């Protein structure tokens, strides 16, 4: 089976997930050379690419002929990524369902974050191959799960599980309006992983992705239920804290700093010491302000923290 998606090609290089908010891809189900409408594929299992966010309005149909995946252009699904082996993996079908088999790839095939050799796929499983993440949807559940997957892709960064920049900006606009009306303070923190480029340069971007995922997980565990944690772009994240004073914001971000710096990150390259710098802006509703203005203030203080030696909070 030859697969050649026609919009937002699956084999294209990685792009920032924030671009998803501005991307209006066409439905792109390619099955045996035929483009099929989403509504017509409810009885067939599919893959949906969720990271990088190139194809969000279509699915890749899986038929009984199997699907070879790799960097080699002869593969059914060719992924243009040096972290993908030439013949990386294959998806096959038997009477029990679809299976994914790793073909001894250098960086491995992960299902729900666990490296696998040969495993049966369950509907909703996340498949990671190099820097690409797909979601597997089984026959019979495609229609409902597909729309849920697209919604998640529009609101969350697939790599880290945090919210995306679009949601952050929308939330910040609402909180600014509430603050002006109710005179309640809000705090916005910008945070950036220290020396992240050296992690990628030394250990490769797959280890960098591991660091980003764990960074997002640790921060999420420290946030309060109504806080908005978002990946702003690259290794930079934002935390919106409604009804929060400067003192409270400093306490929360200091906890976040400690949860990153105090325990090494376990990665494929071994345990890595990671730290982050934080900058905080406070708004109390006294004058007009925009999300970008507050983010710029927080960003300036973030870079004050960087210049001051990193691994610190400036607010």
Automatic annotation (TrEMBL):
It comes from the Bacteria. It catalyses: 2 GTP = 3',3'-c-di-GMP + 2 diphosphate. Residues 184-315 form the GGDEF domain. Its EC number is 2.7.7.65. Residues 67-116 form the FHA domain. GO terms for biological process: cell adhesion involved in single-species biofilm formation; negative regulation of bacterial-type flagellum-dependent cell motility. One of its GO terms (cellular component) is plasma membrane. NCBIfam families: GGDEF. This is diguanylate cyclase. It comes from Crateriforma conspicua.
């Amino acid at each position: 089976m030859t697969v050649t998606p026609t919009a937002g090609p699956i084999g294209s290089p990685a792009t920032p997930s924030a671009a998803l908010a501005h991307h209006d891809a066409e439905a792109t189900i390619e099955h045996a050379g035929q483009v099929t409408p989403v509504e017509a594929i409810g009885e067939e299992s599919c893959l949906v690419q969720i990271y990088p966010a190139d194809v969000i309005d279509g699915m890749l149909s899986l038929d009984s002929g199997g699907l070879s995946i790799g960097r080699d252009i002869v593969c059914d699904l060719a992924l243009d990524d040096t972290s993908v082996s030439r013949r990386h993996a294959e998806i096959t079908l038997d009477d029990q369902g679809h299976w994914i088999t790793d073909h001894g790839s250098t960086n491995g095939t992960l299902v729900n974050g666990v490296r696998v050799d040969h495993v049966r796929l369950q509907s909703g499983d996340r498949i990671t191959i190099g820097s690409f993440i797909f979601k597997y949807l089984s026959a019979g559940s495609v229609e409902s799960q597909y729309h849920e997957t697209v919604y998640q892709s529009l609101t969350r960064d697939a790599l880290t599980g945090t919210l995306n920049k679009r949601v952050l900006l929308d939330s910040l606009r609402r909180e600014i309006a509430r603050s002006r009306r109710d005179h309640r303070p809000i705090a916005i923190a910008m945070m950036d992983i220290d020396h992240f480029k050296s992690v990628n340069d030394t250990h490769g971007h797959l280890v960098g992705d591991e660091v980003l995922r764990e960074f997002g997980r640790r921060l999420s565990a420290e946030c309060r239920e109504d806080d908005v944690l978002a990946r702003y772009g690259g290794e930079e994240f934002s935390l919106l804290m409604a009804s929060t004073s400067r003192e409270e914001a400093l306490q929360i971000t200091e906890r976040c700093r400690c949860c990153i710096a105090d325990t090494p990150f376990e990665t494929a390259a071994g345990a890595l010491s990671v730290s982050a710098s934080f900058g905080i802006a406070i708004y109390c509703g006294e004058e007009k302000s925009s999300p970008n203005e507050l983010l710029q203030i927080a960003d300036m203080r973030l870079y004050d923290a960087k210049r001051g030696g990193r691994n610190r909070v400036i607010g």
